[in-house]
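In the previous chapter we treated chains in isolation. Here, by contrast, the input contains two separate entities that must be folded as one system, with a combined length of 228 residues.
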Amino acid sequence: GESVGLHLPTLSVQEGDNSIINCAYSNSASDYFIWYKQESGKGPQFIIDIRSNMDKRQGQRVTVLLNKTVKHLSLQIAATQPGDSAVYFCAGGIGDGGYNKLIFGAGTRLAVHP
Amino acid sequence: DTEVTQTPKHLVMGMTNKKSLKCEQHMGHRAMYWYKQKAKKPPELMFVYSYEKLSINESVPSRFSPECPNSSLLNLHLHALQPEDSALYLCASSQLLAGANEQFFGPGTRLTVL
């Protein structure tokens, strides 16, 4: 069945370092993948997405890599800041042009230390 | 306006009560979603509305009754809930447009069932 999972439940980094959050998925039916950030007491916030026919996409301080061969997704955050502390979810999405069905992974908590 | 609003922020109810959660967006999105999120878990899809019609019901118990009265509003009517239904209920919306995969989430309603 569809599932999206994460390798590490928590990640601690020093401020200024680069962070890498990993995600594995088991079903190849996803049309795209999205990374969301969720801070305490808030709803998930969109970070970046990547279509399944791409292998890399860059945003502001973030890069998402997709390796379809091993069904692996990663989010790289450059120069991590205290404000990046949150839980990060990857989600596989199905549907394009209509409603989107997202299946979320378990989440990784990123803790940034000064 | 790029915001999804949800009311109330917190709700405490007994198992015999009837209550409603409300969600509103003014981004012109024609897809709206309800998710349930337990503590330290990822959001789980409950319902999807597309053009104000129910498109997906993820086998949700009938004590949860969604309603989409117009393109900006989404309600979730609650009746005879169980303590295990206590969770954060998230509303989201998205465009119905190819390539527009992002779902915009509200801050959620934290529900406690006594």
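The interface with chain B takes residues 31-32, 34, 36, 41-46, 49, 89, 91, 93, 96-107 of chain A (CB under 8 Å). Chain A has a mean pLDDT of 90. Compare these points with the single-chain example from earlier in the chapter.
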